[in-house]
């Protein structure tokens, strides 16, 4: 008798669990539990494990760290994207995350961390994608989220409130990590007002592609644009399915009252870095040999601040560069904001600057947290107790940031501790 | 007369001091080896994370423009379409709300 799993924590239309465990491969070694931030994996040591999708935040850390490859993704868009690429009436737009360009090469024999941006563009052009670099969307996110942060600070410190928009409380959390967002929604809903209201770069990109992109860049009908997020992240597959992310469609219905009527998602499909490699290989495209191609499209232009989003501390550093310039009128000198870089689980820094608008000196305390499982609890408890000294906190679920996301290539040596020993094991 | 030492019931482990030290040394070497093997693999795991991070910081260093507010394309997007950050169009298209997933959902 099939057990019907009652899913309590999903909106209608959302992917009800991106990751599942293959019972035939699972050996019950508990390695996955060492990486799960939400204790979402059930099953005793030695027995087959399963994922409780009501607790799972779709981060995929279990998947990239399992020595036996037991967890797998329940959503695979490769075939769907392939058929869209062949459809001449569809404009397929690849939204490429920063972390993809330093990892995709690994799937084609290049050394770890090779910066393969131009070859990646070449391969994707060959496949038939239009390029929307998510780093452009990252720059856009900084503009929105940085401005939002400044309004929160001005409200909290100087009591300045806008009539149209009530400023949220401090500290402000970044909201670009969908695993982190679901984590808060599940486990700390009272802290939701602290989350930035800005969408993630992926979702901003999807919306912009189907409004501004369609009208001003590619000159096509918005309904004919098929947006594909190309991400280092499995949780992005969940994020794209959230029913509220149909803003472009709602906007078009409003602007052109005779719209087609059916709501469509801002991001139609998501491919992980691994998925993209598989798609290119299926098309016979070897990225390592693809021609280095630059893309002059406006939506492929990005700054150094946008590209570091893939690293832990990168979002914060990008935000500090802009917030500093907006408040003081001068660029941050030097641009490298070293205290937020590196692999320490929790990094903190203070920036003292002169707010030229109010002519007052202010000290902004920032924190950067990654590796949710080990490092987030004390930060959240401090906020709940009203004792947090921070004003702006960047949170990334995955240790190291998105570059080590659940959708990234799994190194041949094995990420799990047993990887290097597996040829010796009788049961492999 | 027996030359063997008396076997006390409370002392089942009948080894000499030399034997005890030899066995201890062997056990320590045995546990140290896998621990070192495991640790080496764990340390290796961070190498590819660092390599990818270095790649992105290099991308930043190489960039001609390194601050988001100077992205010309983003500036044009605001000029031609969005208006201003946190303006009405931005609010509608680029901002969102979150939900408490412990309450009944649609």
Explain the layout of strands and helices:
The complex is a heterodimer of chains A (428) and B (106).
Chain A: E1 19-21, E2 41-42, E3 50-51, H1 61-65, E4 71-73, H2 78-86, E5 91-96, H3 117-127, E6 130-133, H4 134-158, E7 172-173, H5 178-187, H6 201-217, E8 225-231, H7 235-240, H8 247-255, E9 269-272, H9 273-282, H10 304-307, H11 314-328, E10 346-355, E11 360-370, H12 372-384, E12 392-396
Parallel strand pairs in A: 5-6, 5-8, 7-12, 8-9, 11-12
Antiparallel strand pairs in A: 1-4, 2-3, 10-11
Chain B: H1 17-62, H2 72-82, H3 88-94
Sum this structure up briefly:
By secondary structure, chain A is an alpha/beta fold. Chain A is built from twelve helices and twelve strands.
Please give a structural write-up.
Chain A is α/β, with parallel strands linked by helices. Chain A has 3 domains: 62 residues, Alpha-Beta Plaits; 163 residues, Rossmann fold (3-Layer(aba) Sandwich); 156 residues, Fe-only Hydrogenase (Larger Subunit), Chain L, domain 3, CATH 3.40.950.10. Chain A is built from 12 helices and 12 strands. The longest helix of chain A has 25 residues. The two termini of chain A are 31 Å apart. The C terminus of chain A is likely disordered. Chain B has 106 residues and is mainly alpha-helical. Chain B folds into 2 domains: 50 residues; 39 residues, no CATH class. Chain B contains 3 helices and no strands. The longest helix of chain B has 46 residues. The chains are: A alpha/beta (428), B mainly alpha (106). Chains A and B meet through α4, α5, α6, α8 and α10 of A and α1, α2 and α3 of B.
């Amino acid at each position: 008798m099939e057990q019907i799993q009652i899913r309590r924590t999903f909106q209608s239309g959302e992917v009800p669990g991106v990751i599942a465990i293959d019972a035939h491969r699972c050996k019950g070694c508990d390695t996955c539990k060492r990486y799960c931030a939400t204790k979402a994996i059930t099953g005793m040591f030695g027995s087959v494990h399963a994922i409780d999708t009501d607790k799972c935040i779709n981060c995929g850390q279990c998947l990239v760290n399992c020595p036996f490859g037991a967890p797998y993704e329940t959503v695979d868009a490769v075939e769907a994207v392939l058929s869209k690429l062949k459809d001449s009436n569809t404009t397929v737009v690849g939204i490429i995350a920063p972390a993809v360009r330093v990892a995709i090469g690994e799937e084609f024999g290049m050394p770890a961390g090779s910066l393969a941006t131009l070859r990646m563009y070449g391969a994707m052009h060959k496949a038939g994608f239009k390029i929307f670099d998510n780093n452009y969307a990252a720059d856009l996110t900084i503009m929105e989220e940085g401005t939002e942060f400044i309004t929160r600070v001005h409200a909290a410190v100087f009591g300045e409130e806008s009539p149209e928009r009530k400023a949220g409380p401090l500290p402000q959390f970044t909201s670009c990590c969908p695993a982190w967002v679901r984590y808060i929604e599940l486990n700390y809903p009272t802290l939701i007002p602290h989350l930035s209201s800005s969408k993630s770069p992926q979702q901003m990109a999807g919306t912009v592609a189907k409004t501004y992109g369609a009208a001003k860049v590619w000159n096509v009908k918005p309904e004919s644009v098929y947006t594909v997020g190309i991400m280092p992240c499995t949780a992005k597959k969940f994020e794209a399915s959230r029913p509220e992310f149909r803003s472009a469609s709602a906007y078009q219905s409003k602007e052109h009252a005779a719209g087609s009527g059916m709501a469509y998602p801002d991001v139609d499909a998501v491919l992980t870095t691994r998925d993209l490699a598989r798609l290119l290989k299926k098309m016979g495209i070897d990225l390592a040999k693809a021609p280095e191609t630059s893309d002059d499209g406006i939506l492929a232009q990005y700054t150094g601040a946008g590209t570091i989003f893939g690293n832990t501390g990168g979002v914060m550093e990008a935000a500090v560069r802009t917030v500093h310039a907006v408040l003081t009128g001068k660029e941050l000198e030097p641009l490298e904001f070293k205290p937020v870089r590196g692999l320490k689980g929790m990094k903190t820094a203070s920036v003292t600057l002169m707010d030229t608008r109010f002519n007052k000196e202010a000290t902004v305390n920032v924190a950067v947290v990654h590796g949710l499982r080990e490092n987030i609890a004390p930060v959240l408890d401090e906020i709940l107790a009203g004792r947090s000294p921070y004003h702006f906190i960047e949170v990334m679920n995955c240790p190291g940031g998105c570059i080590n996301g659940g959708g990234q290539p799994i190194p041949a040596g094995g990420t799990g501790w047993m990887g290097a020993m597996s040829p010796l094991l009788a049961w492999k | 007369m027996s030359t063997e030492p008396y076997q006390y019931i409370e002392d089942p482990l009948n080894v000499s001091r030399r034997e005890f030290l030899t066995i201890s040394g062997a056990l320590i070497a045995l546990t140290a080896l896998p621990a070192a093997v495991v640790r080496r693999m764990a340390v290796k795991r961070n190498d590819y994370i660092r390599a990818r991070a270095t790649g992105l910081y290099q991308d930043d260093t190489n960039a001609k423009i390194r601050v988001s507010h100077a992205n010309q394309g983003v500036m044009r997007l605001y000029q031609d379409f969005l208006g201003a950050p946190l303006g009405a169009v931005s609010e509608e298209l680029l901002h969102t709300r979150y939900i408490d997933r412990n309450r009944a959902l649609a």
